[in-house]
Amino acid sequence: MGLISYDEVAKHNNSESCYVIVHGKVYDVTEFLPEHPGGSKIILKYAGKDATEEYDPIHPPGTLEENLPKDKCLGEVDPATMKAEAKKEESQEEKQIARNKDELPPLDLCLNLYDFEVVARKVLKGTAWAYYSSGADDEVTMRENNNAFGRIWFRPRILRDVSNINYSTSLLGCKSTLPIYITATALGKLGHPDGEKNLTIAAGREGIIQMIPTLASCSFEEIVDARVHDQQPQFFQLYVNSNRAITEKLIRRAEERGVKGLFVTVDAPQLGRREKDMRIKFEDVGSRVQNDGKDDVDRSQGAARAISSFIDPSLNWDDLNWLRSVTRMPIVLKGVQTWEDAVKAAELGLSGVVLSNHGGRQLDFARSGIEVLGEVVEALKQRGLFPNPMFQIFVDGGVRRASDVLKAVAMGATACGIGRPFLYAYSAYGPEGVQRAIQLLKAEMEMNMRLIGAPTLKDLEPNMVDVRALSTHVNVVPESNQAQIYERLSTAVGMPNEPANKL
Ligand SMILES: Cc1cc2nc3c(=O)[nH]c(=O)nc-3n(C[C@H](O)[C@H](O)[C@H](O)COP(=O)(O)O)c2cc1C
Prior knowledge:
- The chain has helices spanning 6-11, 40-44, 52-58, 63-67, 92-102, 113-123, 126-133, 140-149, 197-206, 220-225, 244-256, 275-288, 302-308, 319-326, 339-347, 369-382, 402-411, 420-452, 489-492, and strands at 3-4, 13-14, 17-22, 25-28, 49-50, 73-77, 153-154, 169-171, 174-176, 180-182, 209-212, 234-238, 261-265, 331-336, 352-355, 392-396, 415-418, 465-466.
- By secondary structure, the chain is an alpha/beta fold.
- It has two domains: 3-86, Cytochrome b5-like heme/steroid binding domain (Flavocytochrome B2, Chain A, domain 1, Roll), CATH 3.10.120; 113-270 and 311-474, Aldolase class I (TIM Barrel, Alpha-Beta Barrel).
- The strands form four sheets. The chain has an eight-stranded parallel barrel with strand order 10-11-12-13-14-15-16-17, surrounded by six helices.
- The chain is globular, with a radius of gyration of 24 Å.
- Residues 284-297 and 493-503 have low confidence and may be disordered.
């Protein structure tokens, strides 16, 4: 294969003949256009051009090789012919982000997890911010996740020896320095070129566990290879593919590479409507694409749609037997939202459940995981299924303070997952940002446990929390930052006379 000039590539800029450059290689994707899960429009936007920058966050390495016949890679572009105009001109947005990055506050000014959100908003592209920060529909559940913790109060005990505090624990048999893990969040490279590897490194250095997403931007192998030491435990989040052979391959590969737990996502048979994400994608795709007048893209799901069409909506309880037959890894259901389903999972002998509503990104008006925890523990207790070290209960959604985690542990959870704050932390500061976030949680944990009178996690008891207001859905604590990030159409398109970011 010889070198291909940029001028030659540029000629193939339409649906009749469509070439794109990715990482210096020229691909003929003409025949692939109708098959592209994200629609042909988005490819045609880069027809005859270098698509690497847009391609990378959404496609793990190897995607092109796996989906295109070998002969569609035509060769390498001649770097000498890449004209200045071919290199994408920096947009106003990119210039502003670069300036903001130069003026990033020193890391030690970030004093809690909310602070990373504020900084990340300044350094993330609009598309990345929309994908990371959005929730479903009116984002009521997304805000409720955090608000629910504000309705639980402590009943601290006094005169207990709290000179030594120990908040280490064990998740599915793996040691963790904190009752906290990094939950799975897709498309890590939207925020930082090293994507999920930032999380791997920080988790390894701080001794907590990372859950690797099926839809990571980095390849699974890259994330596993980024482990700080051989024994660093990792979990894997699974979206089950309609093509079970593909899923089986993923599971076997995860087990071979030493993954310690399989978290099967059960709350996303169809992706929720995240309107902030949809709006920005609508602008992005709609305004600039020339595709011969054909409009074949369902714009309704933004970045999410493009990557999730393979998820099998027919997945049901019967499939769990099959899942168990292909792995020895402990299986946990991620996205359980009622005691009935939690009891069923326990009775089936699964290893646990994550009480979660996907960070408020799926069913709006789903209850918070922490509220569901109360009824789940009660129902399991009644059936003699709690406590049970072989069936662990995890909670995620809106966890931002160690006090949130302590409330969950007192109520019976083993640990809490945290999603967005870690994304924001590395988008702004790389792995050191995530480490800082974890260290802040450790400091909060130590202080709060001392003040509650619980030197170890085992000393946290249900009677140390007052949960009477939890299910009232009446907020007494003013809404936190989460209330500030909802965007209505008017604010999203910059209409005047609307206060920005107000509900
Ligand atoms: C940007 C983003 C991407 C996510 N991607 C996935 C995913 O691919 N699979 C999954 O099971 N959950 C996914 N989640 C849900 C998280 O695992 C978790 O349930 C949620 O983020 C917890 O809420 P928090 O962000 O308020 O901490 C995602 C969440 C966010 C914010």
